[in-house]
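Checklist before submission:
- one chain only
- standard amino acids only
- sequence pasted in full

Submission:
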Amino acid sequence: MSALAAVLVLPLAGALFAVALSGRATRIVALAASAGTLAAALALAASVISHGTLRLEVGGWAPPVGIVLEADGLSIAMIVMTAFVMVAASLSACHMLAPEAAGPRVAFGFWPLMLLLWTALNAVFLSRDLFNLYVGIELLSLAAIGLVALEGKAAALSAAIRYMIFALAGSLLYLAGLVLVYAAHGALDIGLLADRMPAETDALALALMTAGLMAKTALFPFHVWLPPAHGGAAAPASAMLSGLVPKASFIILLRLWFEVMPDRAAGEALTLMAALGIAAVVWGSVGALVQIRMKLIVAYSTVAQIGYLFLFFPLAGGASAEQPWAGGAWNGMVFFAVSHGLAKAAMFIAVGQWMSVRGSDRLDEMRGFASAMPMTAFAFVLASITIVGLPPSGGFTAKYLIMTSAFAAGQWFWGLVMAGGGLLAAAYLYRPVAEIFARADIPALPVPSRVWQVVPLFLACAAVALGIASSAPFELLTMGRPQAAEDGL
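Returned file contents:
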């Protein structure tokens, strides 16, 4: 229980102290809070593995009066992945966003925003109350918008404003659905709502909240804010924004469709969500193919990868929920979310290191960089293997689980989409990899030390290790599967 509270209290306290301090003290406090939160996340994971799901009633008050925090397999997987990405982004910021490189404004503002973002993510992953989830997703959006606009450039400010418009629209839609749920049932706790008597307004409430969360997740056609926001932010911020932020709203969608209102999961609605996922895969992949900037290639790739997550809904929701393949689809979806978060963060940090040397992220400026920075180049390649879904990576394990579930369900079309999307990913990632490993005369440049190059390599290796040592994560995820999937198994 102490670790469960610590993953929320430590980053929030670190953010408050980081604002109150200045200069080098801000960075020291933020790094200490990051280390403590990482330790708390690992301790919480060990407790859940040993004792099962942990549940904390804040203040000792039971719902509907009190708020419940719960750590299950799904939330633990996301919290540990978030901790690894956040620590890697923090270490990268020490090098890339130092005052002499990025200026005092960026060097100071990054740390409290990063810790507030971390607090909001953990709050979303642990909360069991729909209004508490709303508060968490709002804090997340505010911190993310601040990180996008942090450098103060015209393009970054424009991207932040566009992001803010979509975030506010999504929040209003979610809040409207929340009002309908409370008016019909007088409760917002997920456990209480799961046992509710169905109301006529439930379908409308679910539709409103889903539309709002899709806008925050950047699912096609609500994706237009994501590429400029993620591509224009500083590299450590982009690593967090791309690898973590869309996952928070997606996790809320899972809670709504599989725990709060599984009875409203009509087959037509699930198919529509998967169809939007297909459009995201195609649109994001084509967008990545035509970009000439490395960060935009990786950002458009995120649009495509988000689409894969929504192919899971018709395989595990509605009529499929109690079928034998639902549990495998659930595990594959979580494997995909975690491996994507690690790999995409590694990519952005690697590109950021190249930009710190070249001052640009254009493809033609990256030619031959593997000879100057081999560890960073290897990290990018390993991350690409995960994104494409090649063995033995976590991305391969995820796609294998989802595709086998699709073929077992007779819904083979979703499996073919994943296979085709993997080919598109190989096509748009081939260009940067080919440029990086091309033979070229590289002038003597002040490259980062290998200590800094280890950071993206660690994340990329973790994404691959998720596929090699998948047994323990697989068992952990059984603690977060919907009951219907357990009944099907």
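Reviewer check: The radius of gyration is 21 Å.
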